[in-house]
Amino acid sequence: MTIKSARKDSGRRPVKPDFTRRTQRKPQPGARERGIYTVRLGQIRDVLSEVLKWKHPADAVLSAWFRANKALGGRDRNEVAEAVFDVLRHLRRYRQYAESGTGPALERLAILGLASVVGKDTIAGQLSNEEKDWLLRMDTIDPASLAPEIRGSLPDWLYEYMSQLDEPESLVAALNTKAPLDLRVNPFKTDRDNVLAELRASSVADFDPQPTPYSPWGIRLNGKPAIQRWALFENGSLEVQDEGSQLLALLVGPRRTDMVIDFCAGAGGKTLLLGALMRSAGRLYAFDVSAARLAKAKPRIARSGLSNVTPIAISNENDARVKRLAGKADKVLVDAPCTGVGTLRRNPDLKWRQSPASVQELTELQARILNSAARCVAPGGRLVYSTCSVLPQENEQQIDAFLASHPEFSLLNAQEVLGDRCPDLGMTSSYLKLRPDVHGTDGFFAAVLERSK
């Protein structure tokens, strides 16, 4: 399995679902008389019918549907998107609820999702008496009376994996909530205090911008404004990046004179922060198997003002261009392809699109990538391995196996590497292990390895 195919399995492959044949750009005649939320339920059903085929990532399906329905306003789009993602977060529980109703199950899923977003009283006028009675009955069910895998809306295999973790109920509950929007300032152009002051003096103040507790560059918003239109975004002063991902740059610790490799660069979010910390000096290579993803990184690199980044599309983890850098890199970051279950707040469809077979395939790929990246590390150099997963199979077990076969590497304590640049994260091991219920970030793992001199 290649890196490219792993991206497909993890639900991140860009796709273009086609809604043009069955979705009209404007509401049907009589829609105004039937009530806006009758129309909204139909819109949610339309999107869910495509999403629940599990052929494409949910965000790609929504993007395609919005393009086919350009007449919709911002509020309309927000309600459709939030309802669809609410259904995906709670799908197993909602499906159990839907078994007790009448009519199409998809309709009842749409009702539950929209009621969660706008309130059951708001949509009651658009429901039949039977539907209203059913919705009221569902509202009286105590989730604590349900089996934990149903209450947490997890497939059996993922519940089994997560039940082995510390405080699994708390973790699952947090993964089933909406994530805030984390931004990162570009330290090559500005600093957080200046950006915060500017945001608080603008209409963005309505989203309560606050500094993130751990990353020195992070800003957290309560809501999701259209940041692509902001001058700070257009001039490269701001990027979207979860706080946990920002901390990776501190673990890598790049210096101005270093040669650094971002081995799975994707669209370049982590690359940009590494380059900024290097003050656009040294050499920074951004590897990825997808030329399309690297192409998306190029305008971001241009906005950032960096000149030390070289994007390189490789065919696989054993590409000849990788081998030519054997033993030469001071720092190597491997943000490996993974199940992404640490990002379920943002990508709830991933738990339904993954399987034990995909976990097995991904762990095999991660091992190959880690072995290949390790060859690039110079004596005395640093290798940082990370995933946006909370599963030990992709994390601790992966590092244990690597260290057993690579005695020239040793594990450093991540909290000690962070030092006073980051408040104490309460780590009880040498690994960086972040959780939404503990740290307010996505689920994240990182290990810092050092090659002997």
Report on the biggest sheet: 8 strands, mixed
Q: Quote the distance from N terminus to C terminus.
A: 33 Å
What is the approximate shape? globular
Q: Which segments are poorly predicted (pLDDT under 50) over 5 or more consecutive residues? A: 1-15, 21-34
What structural class results from the helix and strand content?
alpha/beta
The number of distinct helices, counting runs of at least 4 residues, comes to: 23
Return Rg in Å. Answer: 23 Å
DSSP, total strands: 12
- Average predicted local confidence, pLDDT: 91
User: Helical residue percent?
Assistant: 40-55%
Q: What fraction strand?
A: 5-15%
Structure commentary:
The chain is of the alpha/beta class and 453 residues long. 45% of the residues lie in helices and 14% in strands. It has helices at 3-9, 31-34, 36-51, 58-68, 74-89, 91-98, 105-118, 120-123, 129-139, 148-151, 156-162, 168-175, 192-200, 231-234, 243-252, 269-277, 291-304, 320-323, 350-353, 356-375, 396-405, 414-418, 436-439, and strands at residues 181-185, 210-211, 218-221, 238-240, 259-262, 283-288, 309-313, 329-335, 377-387, 409-412, 432-434, 444-451. The strands form two sheets. Strands 5, 6, 7, 8, 9, 10, 11 and 12 form an eight-stranded mixed β-sheet that branches. Helix 17 links the parallel strand 6 (283-288) and strand 7. The protein is globular, with a radius of gyration of 23 Å. The chain starts with a helix and ends with a strand.
